[in-house]
Amino acid sequence: MRVPGGSHSRPPPYYPSGAASVVPHRTRVLVYNVKFLPLLGRVLERPLLNTRGFWEIGEVVRTDETRAAIIADLLTRDPRFDVVILCEVFADHARKTFAEAFARRGYHVATCPPVRGFGVFTSSGLFVATRLPILDRAFLPYRTAMGSDRFARKGILHLRLGVRDRALDLFATHLQAGVGARAARRLQLRHARAFIDARTRHSPTIPTLLGGDLNVIGEHSTGHPTEEYVAMREILDGFTDVHHVLTQGRPHPTWNPLENAQMIGDRYGDLERLDYLLVRGDDAERALASDASVEVLRFEHDGLPLSDHYALAFELPLITP
User: What is the pTM for the complete model shown?
Assistant: First the structure.
């Protein structure tokens, strides 16, 4: 099992460069909250009335448009990942930059464009790029939201990915944010679970993945699971928390205000694990008993973090050529 290393200006080479149509023996999945908020979100977030973005805090002014281009280049420089799940791709410029960059490398792209309506100003912010063909897709908006999340059409995205005679059910989501929003997240999780069961009812043998920023703090500072994490696992009964298993119960934080004050600010002090990849059933047991790995990637550029979250990179032997 690979354990987290230091900061990376680019992720380590998981496998050599090659045509995007070549599928490796192990499925390589990246989960990453990239923090590209819409204009309204930028203005209301600290620092207040900030319209340019979040990356320019400090002595050097760097725009979010520049940050999007750098992240897109890092993730597509060679096709090391089979599936990329990005959260908070709310900004139109970021969605366009990522879509064009991944398409140039032969990836299939699925996004959730904004649906205008009363009180809704932006999309779910979900973005998925996959080297595996997309056979089917569906999106379910959540019925519950609080605070600024009410202005976004948050929900859960389902993609059925296929290669030859094998398929993979991928679900991506970004749950309600906020320490005081546990009740809303619980309702969203139940909504998501019902959607997952309905979409996979007729294909129980297909591997099922659920990934994204779930905004559930996994562990206390003591290392013991939080009450909300335990409740989440009960709702998602039958799913295995890959990060937790591969680190033998000592998963690493994906939100680190002590090391990443540049993008997080000085209002927070606790290290938190908020981002997840879960695998269901027999596929989890088989995958995690094999040569699987997880790594926390601290994407940086010129010493500056590229997001307020760190990325999670997984290798799981789920689909073979």
Answer: 0.88
Cis bond leading into 47, ω under 30°?
A: yes
Phi, psi of 293 (to 5 degrees): -155, 160
**The three-state (H, E, C) secondary structure of 253-289, written as one string:** CCECCCCCHHHHCCCCCCCECCEEEEEECHHHHHHHC
Q: How many CB atoms lie within 10 A of CB 228?
A: 18
Q: Tell me the pLDDT tens digit for each residue of 244-269.
A: 999 999 999 999 998 888 788 777 77
- CATH placement of domain 27-316: 3.60.10.10
Domain segments of the chain: what residues? 27-316
Work out the number of other CB atoms within 10 angstroms of the CB of residue 227.
11
3-class secondary structure, 30: strand
More confident residue, 166 or 189: 189
Amino acid making up residue 232: M
